[in-house]
Write a structure and sequence with these properties.
Layout (H helix, E strand, L loop, with lengths): L8 H11 L5 E8 L2 E9 L6 H7 L11
Antiparallel strand pairs: 1-2
Protein name: YezD family protein
InterPro entries: DUF2292
Pfam family, one: DUF2292
Length: 67
């Protein structure tokens, strides 16, 4: 039978620090023998492509020059 997980204040702080400020990504908590032994944070940065960002810009009107 699995041992109950004991999470003390130190690990709670560490988990919250790992999640804090994370916009896109994952936080994995690794448990061995009923104890947290590791926290892994993988952060993703998302950038819009130039063509996608162009669609959101207001269109610029082109003025015709007369000679």
């Amino acid at each position: 039978m699995a041992k109950p997980l004991d999470v003390d204040e130190l690990w709670t702080k560490r988990i919250l620090q790992s999640v804090n400020g994370l916009e896109y990504g994952t936080v994995q908590i690794v448990v061995h023998d009923g104890r947290i032994v590791q926290i892994e944070r993988t952060e993703r940065k998302r950038f819009e492509s130039d063509s996608a960002s162009q669609r959101h810009l207001p269109e610029q009107k082109q003025h015709k020059r007369t000679p």
